[in-house]
Amino acid sequence: MRRNSFPVVFLIALVLLAGWSADLRAQANPGMKKEEAPLRVALAGLVHGHAFGFFDQFQKRADLRVVGIAETDRQLAAQFEKKYGLAPSLFYSDLEEMLKATHPQAVLAYTNTYDHRRVVEICARYGVHVMMEKPLAVSLEDARAIEKAASAGKIQVLVNYETTWYRSNQAAYDLVHENAIGEVRKIVVHDGHYGPKEIGVGPEFLAWLTDPKLDGGGALFDFGCYGADLATWLMDGRRPDSVTAVTQQIKPDVYPRVDDEATIILTYPRAQAIVQASWNWPFDRKDMEVYGQKGYAITVKRDALRVRLPGQEEISAEAKPLEKRKEDSVWYLRAVLLGGMKPEGQSSLETNVIVTEILDAARQSAATGRTVSLAGTR
């Protein structure tokens, strides 16, 4: 025990502790100098509830400028105009018309998931990069069409997950890739709350979240995508060998058309991932457990985690701050578009095509009651 104590403590300090914050915050991307002009972005759609979060968080950012908003629902557009003091001239009823008039550097998609393909295909024709809210698509067919359009238009397509900007997830990833807990054997991801209707999402958001065509499913796609994304990231972009899923309608009176409870099991040659997605939990949570050959890391909300390493008792620690370009979606978008950073991991198109493949297979598995094999397929 005594012989191992120094290296273990040193490793934990290196990977987790927040004392490194000053150094990390100094690692700003060269493409993010203060004197640069703001990144010109336009919004495609406002029906995704996260659009409110975007304006709440980023409207006053000096490094970002909203140059247009395409939304066909005039009542919804008026709601945003009034709430955030937006100029009427920002609003357009047609995405293509907006692109021609405003020439943004990037489009942020806040449409339903089904419309992501259409948004990317239009933006690709104009060479405009896209960042959309998770998940990438409602089907593997659409994901591959998005991939094809992005390649043809030479544009970046990024997917924004709240959990991408969690310090705790990055710390768990670092522990895996520093070999502190050994090769991954099991990943368990929990994502859910007590339901979109129960938490009071807007009517325009609820309408498509509970539509199997526009959302791809219910909790399976809404929350299952987080776990599929994290597992793919932790497994270094490897596709699982098989996907098995069970879905339920625990509240069919509330959600008659889609599942509200889902569990997905992914198998890899020497590991397994369990993704738990729910609209039935008494509290909201987004966390995960990563078990390796030698130890484990369990994330606790955004900024902390519990860790146990060989020969040691479990410790709790604050995760170190993320480097500036990975602190939030805007910093990341700037790093990719202005700083030349190659997209990778949770937000990358490559990862999210795999995520969509997992979700598509999970939907098929739940419908048929059979495991779907992905080994040897593409």
Note down, in words, how this protein is organized:
With 378 residues, the protein is an alpha/beta fold. It contains 15 helices and 15 strands. A hairpin with a 3-residue loop joins strand 11 (285-292) and strand 12 (296-300). It is globular, with a radius of gyration of 21 Å. Mean pLDDT is 92; it is low at 1-11 and 17-32.
Percent of sequence in beta strands: 15-25%
Low-pLDDT residue intervals, each spanning 5 or more residues: 1-11, 17-32
**Order of strands in the sheet with most strands:** 14-13-12-11-7-10-9-8-15
Secondary structure: helix percent: 25-40%
Distance between the termini: 47 Å
Number of helices: 15
Question: What integer value in Å does the Rg equal?
Answer: 21 Å
Order of helices and strands: HHEHEHEHEHEHEHEHHHHHEEEEEEEHHE
Cα shape: globular
Tags for this model:
globular, alpha/beta, disordered N terminus, 15 helices, 22% strand, six-stranded parallel sheet, nine-stranded mixed sheet, 15 strands, 378 residues
Topology:
Elements: H1 2-15, H2 21-25, E1 39-44, H3 50-58, E2 64-70, H4 74-84, E3 91-92, H5 95-102, E4 106-109, H6 116-125, E5 129-133, H7 140-153, E6 157-160, H8 167-177, E7 184-192, H9 196-199, H10 203-209, H11 212-215, H12 219-222, H13 224-234, E8 242-248, E9 261-268, E10 271-278, E11 285-292, E12 296-300, E13 304-308, E14 315-318, H14 329-337, H15 349-368, E15 372-373
Parallel strand pairs: 1-2, 1-4, 2-3, 4-5, 5-6, 7-10
Antiparallel strand pairs: 7-11, 8-9, 8-15, 9-10, 11-12, 12-13, 13-14
